[in-house]
Design goal:
By secondary structure, this protein is α+β, with helices and mostly antiparallel strands. It contains 4 helices and 6 strands. This is Protein GrpE.
Length: 196
């Protein structure tokens, strides 16, 4: 049975290719027609999508331009504020120093006619103490260097001399110029002499 089904007569063989071709043509025409219908729908959908996309793109572009302009204005404003801050940064300190300057001018005028040296000395010491307390109030603090171990982070070594005792080796023996902290930051290194 299987041999008869597998064997085709010449007429059947001639018919089969035609049927196959017709079937293939019909199958290929149907998707093409379906595609054409789908393309019409897609084109309509694509038009709506492209209109929505272009409107969304315009909106995003507008937002971007506004944000860019806002940032440029912010940058200009902050740079202007920084310049003004630099110009007036020391204003508070200068205003606080004016009374000390007034005291020094009065002391200078008093020294011209003064006969009593002790009175002048006391006046200058008062002005000095007032000035020192003002600077401390603003955050300036003097370093204590003599007798401390040498520290390159806060001390500047001028020279080395023989240490007067063994325990003073590597320590600060003398201070040539005071060092200062401003709010715990070194603003001037102490110039010191170290024991060797």
């Amino acid at each position: 049975m299987s041999t008869t089904a597998e064997q085709n007569t010449p007429e059947q063989e001639n018919l089969q290719p035609e049927n196959q071709e017709a079937t293939e043509q019909t199958a290929s025409e149907q998707p093409a027609a379906g595609q054409a219908e789908g393309q019409g729908e897609e084109t309509e959908g694509e038009t709506k999508t492209s209109e929505n996309g272009s409107a969304e793109l315009d909106e995003l572009r507008d937002k971007y331009l506004r944000l860019q302009a806002e940032f440029d204005n912010f940058r200009r404003r902050t740079s202007k504020e920084r310049l003004e801050l630099f110009k007036t940064a020391n204003q508070e300190l200068m205003v606080a120093l004016i009374p000390v300057l007034d005291d020094l001018e009065r002391a200078q005028a008093a020294m011209k006619d003064a006969q009593d040296v002790n009175a002048v000395r006391e006046g200058v010491e008062l002005i000095f103490n007032k000035f020192q307390s003002l600077l401390q109030h603003k955050g300036l603090k003097a370093m204590e260097a003599v007798g401390q171990p040498f520290d390159a982070d806060v001390h500047e070594a001028i020279t080395q001399i023989p240490a007067p005792s063994e325990d003073m080796k590597g320590k600060v023996i003398d201070q040539v110029e005071k060092g200062y902290y401003l709010n715990d930051k070194v603003v001037r290194f102490a110039k010191v002499v170290i024991g060797a």
